[in-house]
Amino acid sequence: MRLALVPSRFRVVQAISLLAATIAVSAQTAPGPSLRLEEVVRSGVTSSPLIAAARARVEAARGARITAATLPNPLLTLQVENGGYPGQRTPPGLDAERSLFATVPLEPLHQRRARMRRAGDDIRAAEADLAAARWNVALDAARAYYRAAIAQLAVDSAADVRRGLSDLSAYNEARVKEGVAAEGDLIRVKIERDRATIEEAVSRTELVRALAELGPFLGDGAVPPGSPPPRLTLDTT
Hints:
5 helices; mainly alpha; 8% strand; two-stranded parallel ribbon
C-alpha cells in the first residue's frame, strides 16, 4: 500500500512543479516603465483624496475667516402711521407720520476680534492637518514602493536560482546519458529545480500583491493600460 502511494505523490509534486513553471514562464514579459521613488511619492501626493479633503478644509477655514472679519450691515426701517392704504389718499383730518430708523448691530462689533482669532486658529489647525496628511501619504507611498521593489528583487533572485538549477539539471542529464554521473544526483538536482520554480511562482504572487498596494499611489497615466508591470529602481547612493 505504501508503494502504491509513492507514484501518486510523485505525480502530485510533478503537477505542482509544472504549474509553477507555467506561472513563471507566463510572467516573463518585457520590462515595463521604470519608476523612481520620487515619482511615486509625487504622484501619490498629487492624486490622494485625503490630501484633497484636507486642502478643502483649509479653503473652508479661510472662507470662515473672511466671514468673521466682515462688518455687519446696518438695518434701515421705514415706519408710516396714519397713512392710507396703497393707492388711496390719507383720510381727512389725519396727518401721515413717517419715520426712518437706521440701526447698526453692536454685538458683532464686540465679537469680531474673538471670531477672527478663532478663525485664524482654525486655519492653522487645518494647515497642520494638511501637512500631516501629506507626510502620511508620502510615507505610505514610500512604504508601498519599497515593499514592491523588494518583492521585485526577490523575483529576480528566485528566477536566477531557477535558471541556474535548470542549466545544472540539463548538464547532469547529459552526463547521466553518457554514463559518467549517477541518476540519483540528477533526481536531487531536479527536485531542487522544481522547488526553486515553486519559490519563484510564490515570489511573483507576492510581487503582484505588492504592486496592487502600490497602484493607488501611481495615479492616472503613470502606467499605461495593458503595459507590463513597472520596474522599480532602488537608489543606493
